[in-house]
Specification:
Elements lengths: L2 E2 L4 E2 L3 E3 L4 E2 L4 E2 L3 E3 L4 E2 L4 E4 L15 E4 L4 E2 L4 E3 L6 E4 L4 E2 L4 E2 L4 E2 L4 E2 L4 E2 L4 E2 L4 E2 L4 E2 L4 E2 L4 E2 L4 E2 L7 E3 L6 E2 L1 H6 L6 H10 L6 H17 L6
Parallel strand pairs: 1-4, 2-5, 3-6, 4-7, 5-8, 6-9, 7-10, 8-11, 9-12, 10-13, 11-14, 12-15, 13-16, 15-18, 16-19, 17-20, 18-21, 19-22, 20-23, 22-24
Antiparallel strand pairs: 24-25
Length: 226
């Protein structure tokens, strides 16, 4: 059973799982699929067309959004429909804080934290457990690596390696907090060499993570912070 405030507007083509709380004055257009145990709103807007200057009035009626389970999407956040791919997608256990812009064709993987006032441009990809600090802005087509941290107020114009901390105009450093939180302490030396010297790890677990990032990095045609 879902708890939906009477002031919400939920389109007939929105598919809801169970245990969701849709808070006052939230608007959700379809086709949108939302999983279980999410908290959304108040005043969130999900499912409006992407803000695309090439085709600002494109037909978005069949463009899909998918939101997984156990997410928190706070007040005044906007999540927009895709323009160029099949879907705008948010995974599971994602915490999207107040006044965040999730653009057309974005992919936000599991366990990501996006803090207040962050703005992502179109076709952005934020990989597992990355953390975007207050007021971060992300260039279109950028890829933020798994377990990376972006410092507050930072404009991101290149892709960011997994396990790293990016602070504007400074070399990358290791996100030791994420290593401890997500159980990567035993790989500390390999991760340090990868982040600071670009030496690939030998451990299969790390290689799988880095290979996922590198495939997306190459496809994005964006440069890389080092």
């Amino acid at each position: 059973m879902n708890k939906i405030d009477a002031t919400c507007i939920i389109d007939a083509t929105v598919e809801l799982g169970t245990g969701n709380k849709i808070l006052p004055y939230t608007v959700i257009y379809g086709p949108t699929k939302i999983g279980n145990n999410n908290i959304i709103g108040p005043y969130a807007v999900i499912g409006t067309p992407g803000q695309d200057t090439r085709n600002p009035r494109y037909d978005s009626s069949n463009c899909k959004i998918e939101i997984g389970d156990n997410n928190i999407i706070r007040e005044f956040t906007a999540i927009q429909k895709p323009c160029y791919t099949d879907i705008t997608k948010i995974g599971n256990n994602v915490h999207v804080m107040q006044s965040v812009h999730i653009p057309h064709d974005a992919v936000i993987q599991d366990d990501v934290v996006i803090t207040p006032m962050c703005v992502l441009a179109g076709i952005s990809t934020v990989l597992k457990a990355a953390n975007l600090g207050l007021g971060v802005t992300i260039h279109q087509r950028s890829v933020i690596g798994q377990y990376a941290l972006i410092s507050m107020g930072t404009p991101v114009t290149k892709n960011v390696k997994p396990f790293s901390i990016y602070i504007q105009n400074k070399p990358l450093r290791v996100n030791y907090y994420a290593l401890k939180k997500y159980g990567f302490d035993t790989y500390r030396n390999e991760i340090e060499l990868y982040v600071t010297q670009d030496i690939k790890p030998k451990s299969a677990h790390l290689l799988k993570i880095i290979e996922e990032f590198e495939l997306l990095h190459i496809a994005s045609k964006r440069p890389l912070y080092k």
